[in-house]
Every structure is written in C-alpha cells, then in structure tokens.
C-alpha cells in the first residue's frame, strides 16, 4: 500500500515539476537536461507501465502548450531507455494530442525529425488518420510528403483522396490519386472520386475513369458514370457508356442503374422496355422489383402489384417496402 502511494505521489510530482519548469517559456535542450535526467532517475526503478504513465502526462502538457524541442528530448530519453513499443505508443499519443489541441504544424515538425522510414510510418499513420477525421486534409497531405513512397503511404493517400472527393474537392482528390504508386490503392481511390464526381459532372467523371486500370472497380466506376449521365436526363451518353463495358454482366449492371431514371423523367415506356430486357438477361427478380417500386412511387400501385406478381422468387426487400409505403399512403388519402 505504501509503495503504491509513493508511486502515485512520485508520478504527480514528476509531471507537475516538469510542467512548471516548462511553463515560463519554451526551454532549450540544455535547460531541460537536468529535469529530464532527474525524471528518468526517479522513474527507472518503477514498473514500465508506471513509467509510461508518467511520461504520458509530461508529453500531454507539452501537447497542450504546443512545444516541440522539449518533448522531442523527452521522446529521445524514452527511446533510449524504454521498449520500442512504448516509444511508438507514446509518440503516437503525443502527435494525436497535438492535433486535437490545434498544434498541427508543431506536430508535423516532430514527424520531420523521425529518421527511420518504417518507424515514421508506424508512428505517423494514426496522426494522418486523425487529421483526415478532423477535415485537416491539406495538413494530412503535408504530413504524407514527409513519408517514403511505400505501400503503406499509398494506402493513406488513397484514404486522403477519398476524403477530398467526399468533400467535393475533386481537383485535390485527383492530384492525390496521381501520387499513389500502387495500382490497387490508386484504383480504390479513383473509384470513390469517380462515383462522387459523377453526381455533379459525369463528363469529368468519365474522363477520370479512363485513367483507371481495368478490372472490377473500373467497371463499377463506369456504371456510376452511366448513372450520372442518366440522372441529368442524358440517356444517349448513359447507354453508350453502359454498352461499352464487357463482359456482359458488367454492361447489364450499368444499365440497371440507368433504367430507373427513365421512369423518373416520365419516359415510362422506354424504362419498362429496358427493365424487361434486363430481367430476361439477368434471370433475377431485382430489376423487376425495382420496376415495381418506381411504378408504385409514380402512383400506379395496381401496376406495381402486377409486376410483383410476375416474380418467380422473393422480391427485393427494399423495393417491396417502397411499394408498401406507397400503398399505405394511398389508403390514408382515401
């Protein structure tokens, strides 16, 4: 009990003493030499877990105050005297703490001091993800310039590009995609960018999709482009994009995204014809279910019921719900 109390007092005193020594002004390396050495001497007989808590408290103070030179010296002592995993964990927490306290430039300066490329990635990854979550995308981009071109960096760039796209910053998203060296990660990022861009400018989305590698994500991206054209009542382009795809299932998937817009723009006969073509080609009830849902939403609940009756299997649950909602609305109106 006495030993536990002694450790508690030591931890509190150590953290407070170092905080006070740094509070007047940012200390130089020489000025922090004695308190840090004293701190280490006091903590070296403690369990690693307790030492970690002590240093965590010290680094938290520096994170709140936005200092860099003093905490870098602390990290240096930790690195020399504690396990590598402890150093990594404490440095990760410190950088995230800096970001949360809006000392991002100072945190990036700390990142620039880390020499080992692998160590830099392991420590910096959570920091970059924190910046993305805080919508500090340009700061995340700036941090990533300090990292080597590795697969791990490509993964982070992909997430950054997707974040830019979701915010509608398509030029930045595209520039970020161009920095990604691995085809898989680049395609993953480009798909999200194309999907979002197609809702605003399908022409630009089509051009960007052309830079993707062939494969499943490419055909999925092109299907989103076709849908984008259809949403602007540009069915000639939508059909052209859809029919350019191969194999046939990819083409049919794109057309199934286009078909509902015929009905939404009042071109019911053309839409139904396309839907029936897809139903026959895909041997699936999903398109017929979608036809029924849209038909019901346009006020023709009897027609929707007739379409559902043609299904050989179970209808799509979401489509069936939409039909049901329209039926309930009509009953209330009556």
Descriptive report:
This protein is mostly helical and 334 residues long. The protein has 19 helices and no strands. Helix 3 packs parallel to helix 5 (84-100), helix 8 runs antiparallel to helix 9 and helix 11 packs parallel to helix 13 (216-231). The protein is elongated and about 85 Å long. The termini are far apart.
Which characteristics define this entry?
334 residues, mainly alpha, 19 helices
Number of DSSP strands? 0
Which parts are unreliable, with pLDDT below 50 for 5 consecutive residues or more?
A: 18-33
Q: Considering DSSP H and I runs of 4 or more, what fraction of the residues is helical?
A: over 70%
Looking at the chains present, what oligomeric state does this protein adopt? single chain
Distance between the termini: 77 Å
Total number of helices: 19
Mean pLDDT, all residues: 80
Structural class computed from helices and strand pairing: mainly alpha
SSE ordering: HHHHHHHHHHHHHHHHHHH
From the spread of the alpha carbons, the general shape counts as elongated
What Rg is obtained from the alpha carbons, in whole angstroms?
29 Å
Largest sheet: none
Give a brief rundown of this model.
The chain is mostly helical. It contains 19 helices and no strands.
Topology:
Blueprint: H1 2-23, H2 29-43, H3 48-65, H4 69-81, H5 84-100, H6 104-113, H7 117-133, H8 137-144, H9 151-166, H10 170-178, H11 183-198, H12 202-209, H13 216-231, H14 235-243, H15 248-264, H16 268-282, H17 286-297, H18 301-309, H19 317-333
């Amino acid at each position: 009990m006495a030993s536990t109390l002694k450790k508690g007092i030591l931890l509190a005193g150590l953290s407070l003493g170092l905080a006070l020594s740094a509070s007047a002004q940012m200390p130089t390396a020489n000025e922090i030499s004695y308190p840090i050495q004293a701190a280490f001497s006091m903590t070296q007989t403690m369990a690693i877990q307790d030492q970690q808590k002590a240093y965590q408290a010290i680094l938290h103070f520096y994170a709140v105050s936005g200092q860099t030179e003093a905490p870098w010296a602390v990290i240096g002592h930790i690195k020399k005297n504690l396990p590598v995993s402890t150093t990594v964990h404490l440095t990760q927490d410190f950088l995230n703490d800096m970001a949360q306290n809006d000392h991002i430039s100072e945190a990036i300066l700390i990142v620039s001091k880390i020499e080992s490329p692998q160590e830099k990635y392991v420590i910096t990854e959570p920091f970059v993800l924190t910046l993305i979550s805080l919508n500090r995308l340009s700061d995340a981009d700036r941090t990533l310039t300090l990292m080597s071109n590795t697969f791990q960096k490509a993964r982070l760039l992909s997430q950054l590009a997707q974040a830019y796209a979701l915010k509608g910053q398509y030029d930045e998203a595209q520039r970020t995609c161009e920095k990604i060296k691995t085809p898989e990660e680049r395609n993953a990022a480009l798909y999200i960018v194309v999907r979002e861009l197609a809702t605003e400018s399908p022409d630009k989305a089509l051009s960007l999709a052309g830079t993707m590698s062939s494969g499943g994500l490419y055909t999925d991206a092109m299907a989103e482009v076709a849908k984008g054209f259809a949403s602007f009542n540009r069915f000639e382009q939508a059909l052209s994009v859809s029919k350019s795809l191969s194999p046939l299932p990819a083409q049919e998937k794109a057309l199934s995204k286009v078909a509902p817009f015929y009905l939404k723009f009042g071109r019911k006969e053309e839409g139904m014809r396309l839907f029936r073509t897809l139903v026959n080609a895909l041997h699936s009830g999903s398109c017929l279910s979608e036809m029924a849902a849209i038909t019901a939403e346009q006020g023709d609940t009897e027609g929707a019921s007739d379409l559902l009756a043609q299904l050989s299997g179970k209808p799509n649950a979401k489509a069936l719900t939409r039909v049901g909602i329209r039926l309930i609305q009509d009953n209330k109106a009556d």
